[in-house]
Design brief:
Family: Belongs to the LysR transcriptional regulatory family.
Helix content: 40-55%
Largest sheet: 9 strands, mixed
Number of helices: 11
Shape: elongated
Protein name: LysR family transcriptional regulator
Low-confidence stretches: none
Mean pLDDT: 86
Structural class: alpha/beta
Pfam families: HTH_1 (PF00126), LysR_substrate (PF03466)
Oligomer: single chain
InterPro entries: LysR_HTH_N, LysR_subst-bd, WH-like_DNA-bd_sf, WH_DNA-bd_sf
Radius of gyration: 30 Å
Number of strands: 11
Organism: Acinetobacter albensis
Order of helices and strands: HHHEEHEHEHEEHEEHEHHEEH
Length: 296
């Protein structure tokens, strides 16, 4: 059986127009070519698709059943062709994006929706990991793109474009001792357990670590839950609190008396200079760059 796309189009058009001659006019073919194509299709399928007893061909029940599936099959064939063409033009077979777990609350899905509209057949895989792990995924090419906090020291292999600014705040549960102070001294911070969002790799020292005693977790949600339970104080994104009033109502933002730590960061889209980026990754990078130009 060797059925091609043109045969399916002719079959579909004959049923929709009601005759071989009308289908021929619609498709810009001679009637004999349409008739021959249908005859060959019937031979390939070993089915009678049309009754030719009257002036016009009448679809058989088998033809009606096949017609119901033909349009979807033609759509899938066109999608297959378009995807094959996109691959030949440099579209990656899959795009792996890692979103740092500390920033999962931001509207990162807007960028994924943009990619889906531009490349509807692209396989997109989203991973979540702490900052240090996300960078390792990028550099070992497990992921092609990463959304992560700015780094004080850049790896020579990484390149980035800024996405947005993020503010972090130190917080403690309202029922804890730290929350009773108008201002918190440095020695109080040192002696109280801190809940830190950090890499799963215990050999890596967490960023934004101030306390001598600390517990670590790999995402903001679990950190927030532990802080609310009074198991320690921690540093959370302000947007996370603002977007969740029920969380905000259970926490107090701490005011440090003795020092002003840097709790304002930029979120970057990061990639490796060593990776051969595909069309979708390059499209997203260019979109963000162009958006930044419009803001300036």
């Amino acid at each position: 059986m060797n059925i091609n796309q043109e045969q399916l189009i002719i079959f579909k058009t004959v049923i929709e127009t009601g005759s071989f001659s009308a289908a021929a006019r619609t498709l810009g073919k001679v009637p004999s070519a349409v008739s021959m194509s249908i005859a060959n299709l019937e031979i390939d399928l070993n089915l009678s698709l049309f009754s030719r007893a009257g002036r016009e061909p009448i679809p058989t029940p088998q033809a009606i059943t096949l017609y119901e599936k033909t349009e979807q099959l033609l759509i899938e064939m066109n999608q297959w062709k378009q995807h094959a063409f996109a691959l030949s033009e440099g579209l990656e077979s899959a795009l792996n994006i890692v979103v740092v777990s500390e920033i999962l609350h931001i509207q990162w899905t807007d960028y994924i929706s943009l990619l889906e509209k531009e490349f509807p057949d692209l396989q997109i895989n989203i991973f979540s990991a702490p900052q240090e792990d996300a960078l390792n995924m990028l550099l070992n090419q497990t992921a092609q793109l990463a959304m992560m906090f700015e780094r004080e020291q850049l790896e020579s292999r990484e390149q980035f474009v800024e996405l947005k600014r993020e503010v972090l705040v130190p917080v403690a549960a309202l029922h804890t001792e730290l929350a009773t102070f108008k201002q918190v001294r440095y020695e109080q911070i040192l002696q109280n357990r801190q809940i830190v969002v950090a890499s799963r790799d215990r050999s890596l020292k967490p960023e934004l670590l101030f306390s001598k005693k600390y517990w670590r977790t790999d995402n903001n949600l679990s950190a927030c839950t532990m802080i609310i339970e009074g198991l320690g104080w921690g540093i959370l994104p302000l947007d996370m609190l603002n977007q969740n009033p029920h969380i905000h109502q259970q926490l107090k933002i701490l005011d440090f008396l003795d020092f002003s730590p840097k709790f304002e960061y930029f979120i970057d889209l990061v990639w490796s200079r060593e990776s051969e980026l595909g069309a979708a990754a390059r499209f997203l990078i260019d979109h963000i760059r162009n958006s930044r130009k419009k803001l300036k």
